[in-house]
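Possible regression after last week's pipeline update?

I re-ran a chain I had predicted before the update to compare outputs. Posting the input and the new output here so someone can diff against the archived version. Not blocking, just want to make sure nothing changed silently.
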Amino acid sequence: MKHIAYKTLLAAVCVALAGCEDTPFLQVETESGMDESIIFSKVETTEGQIASIYHVMGETNAYRNNLTNNMGVNTDIELQSGSADDDAATGDNRRSLAVYMHTAGMVDNWNASDGKDPFSQIYSAIERCNNAVEGIKKYGNPQPGTHMGALYAEALTLRAFFYFDLIKYWGDVPARFEPLTMETAWIPKSDRVVIYNQILNDLAIADEYGAWPGEYSYTTVERANRGFAKALRARVAMSAAGKALVRVNRDFENPYTAGGDPGEINWVFPDEARRTELWNIVKTETEELLASGYYNLPTERGSFEQFWRDIMSDVISVGRESIFEIGFRTGRGRVAHTFGAYHDDADKYVAKKVSPYFVASPIYYYRFQEGDVRRDVTVVPYKYVKSDKKLTGNADGFQTLSSINKMYFGKFRAEYRDIKSVGILTNAENDEGINFPVMRVADVVLMAAEANCMLGNQGLALQYVQMIRRRAFGGDGAMDKIPHNTTSQAGMLKVIKDERMFEFAEELIHKQDLIRWGELKQAMDIAKEETAELRECIGDFSVLMDAGEPRTVYYRLRPDMETLEYHNIDPYEETFTPAVGEEWQEAKWTNGESGDVLYLSDEWINKVYYQGDPDKRQLLPIVSVLVAGSQNTLVNDYGY
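New output (post-update):
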């Protein structure tokens, strides 16, 4: 009988192959040494093996940090802080990755030699999934409508989630869907089409076997249930139906033998008929999920903010908008530190400084339509400090004005936390235990809209868009403000693209959207032009001009001595002039400077979005330490 002792098994493989220790992504270990026939024949012990899969997510260089705080940037609306720094292009770190200048020699633990690099961590999780899938099938007698069947579906769903991330970030990767053996220790990359087809089939099985929220042990959004399987299958199909950086000369029948192929932006599935099949999968899965009755998209305008308050306050119950979250315990996971708003020191909300990695591009705030509640939840023009040159506030922290090149994201702001119930953010080592939302109902609604748009049903697509806009604007969703022709496919698709941009900033979704639309570089080129126009207050930004000069921003603390009142940042606000005798601080905004250098200088604009070619650096290289130790089976393409 085989025992669940991965490290022991792989040690034997390594000895036989003489050198496996140099390929850390093959190294997996577990604490259990029990016979798998015992483990996978009982629900209780199988639950423990499923839990071990989730454990990998919280590991260093996995989703705790690198697979969240290094991903999703840069785009036209999301920037890695420090992207315009002098060493951003040459440091081979997270800033280099953001400006598309990374190489196979990346640092920041991407080349860790102990099996703890991000690529290896994902394969570690996949190996645990493979063992669970095989063990449950062999010894657990999984059936639809049973707890063991649900655990089988969960293992399939998690494996699909991990492989989808491999595809998103690395493109073509080794496809291993069975436990590691001597014969499969060294395999080349497979075309991602092979993996797409496999995980789409696996997720269909997971739908059949899976448990709905509230059934068996699936009582929190930290477990991958049937709803997530359906939503993930839609997201995978939508991505597969799109464009990406693919090899120029692709051979779907023969083993992967490319190496050094420069790549091109093209369809993942060249066959248009297959792409139509994929959009039908998206339509079916999303509409079935929305009709299931297990999830809720509130329409109250305050519900968008409440979603993020729940995230920051550790609410993990099912039956809400959230479908699946990566769960982090206290002291693990750098979510608020990566995506939150700035706090310069310990204060009433945080135990230590929060200096976020992500900032909003200057033009994002100004793209929102008037009355959209998502804007002020998503982007904030201020930061929390303990002292300030111009303002004197509460001793335990207060807001002061930031600058136009440092507009912070607000969804994961510490002040959304219900500190009376769950305490302040205890962010030791920059880890604070805030969950990262992977899937929520708003995404399902907009996927349904896009599927119907692509399949020619613009009327139904518009109904789904209206569901989102009703929450954003109230009433009928301000549908008369939509600036595109919603009766044509091209116009309707523009509407959906806009709504996804406004809805999903800093959720690691927008960059993948731009990639599958084939618009990553194009979107950032437009953002560069808009940023220059914003500085000059011309074009769409001319409203920010007052009497021939950029508007002056006025700000002061409110009577609570904590929160900031500010004017002339909002383009929909009439130009504000303080009354005589009132005390206000003033600052330049669009023409703000550091010393004598404009925040939005030509040099800054040219550096901050990208410095390499985004369309040639969409994907990550397999890092040098893994290629060197792969017995000549792993190769890099796309100029790496």
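Follow-up from reviewer: compared with the archived run. DSSP finds 21 helices and 17 strands in the chain. Marking as no regression found.
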